[in-house]
Design goal:
Blueprint (H helix, E strand, L loop, with lengths): L3 H7 L8 E5 L2 E6 L5 H14 L6 E4 L2 E4 L3 E6 L5 E3 L2 E3 L6 H10 L9 E7 L6 E4 L12 E7 L2 E7 L6 E6 L4 E4 L3 H4 E5 L9 E7 L6
Antiparallel strand pairs: 1-2, 2-13, 3-4, 5-8, 6-7, 8-15, 9-14, 10-13, 10-15, 11-12, 11-14
Bound molecules: 2-oxoglutaric acid (AKG) and manganese (II) ion (MN).
């Protein structure tokens, strides 16, 4: 089966300024400024205004905690998802999200049916170490992430050797595709920062296999 990244390249969606990062079970494609700055500004404004941002809760080890960011989940009705102990029921797509989905979807074979939206209000907002390895995503999922607003560090560490780390600065308009065995072998997170940072929006497009 062709990978989504091959498919995007064959269709010239990924231009030559993208970079493959392949290393010890990690398979990433990073395309800085996949969306050029002025257009990314427009998307950022629309996403800030038109996403139903909420502060979610996570239930882990018998405790309930507020997530250190805002989030929202959109997608096809059947794209239900279990995440950190809660059921994610998708809100229906809006035009901004559909337009972004179109930019990264080439044909029906690689159909993203949902998107997890995260809003990092400032440097103290973050996302802990995790892999996107929920069973609904399948064995070697392709996850396409697009970032808007403030540049934040995206860290990866190998599951079997936590000292093996990689840091990527994800900036306004950047696309990062995680594919192959990445989720099986590596974890990722967005660390807090003590710097005074502006908000950042990140969207991760996913394909959820229906349980229905
Ligand atoms: O904000 C990011 O770049 C990462 C988001 C993420 O890992 C996720 O939504 O699972
Ligand atoms: Mn993730």
């Amino acid at each position: 089966m062709r990978s989504i990244t091959d498919n995007l390249i064959q269709n010239n969606y990924l231009q030559k300024n993208g970079e493959w990062i392949e290393h010890d079970g990690l398979s990433l494609y990073w395309h800085p400024k996949f969306i050029e700055t002025t257009l990314a500004d427009t998307y950022y404004e629309a996403l800030q205004a038109n996403i139903q941002w909420q502060q979610g809760y996570i239930h882990l080890f018998g405790k309930t905690q507020k997530e250190p960011r805002l989030s929202a989940y959109y997608g096809d009705a059947e794209a239900q998802y279990q995440y950190s102990g809660r059921s994610m029921i998708p809100l229906p797509w809006n035009n901004t999200l559909l337009s972004l989905k179109k930019r990264i979807s080439i044909d029906k074979e690689y159909h993203f049916n949902s998107v997890l939206c995260n809003y990092y209000r400032a440097g103290q907002d973050s996302m802990g170490w995790h892999s996107d390895d929920e069973p609904e995503l399948g064995a070697s999922p392709a996850i396409a992430s697009i970032s808007f607003g403030e540049t934040r560090r995206f860290l990866l560490r190998q599951k079997k050797h936590h000292k093996n780390k990689l840091s990527i600065s994800l900036a306004h308009g950047d696309l990062l595709i995680m594919s192959g065995e990445t989720q099986a072998n590596w974890q990722h997170h967005i660390p807090k920062s003590t710097k005074k940072l502006s908000p950042r929006i990140n969207l991760t497009f996913r394909h959820i296999k229906s349980r229905l």
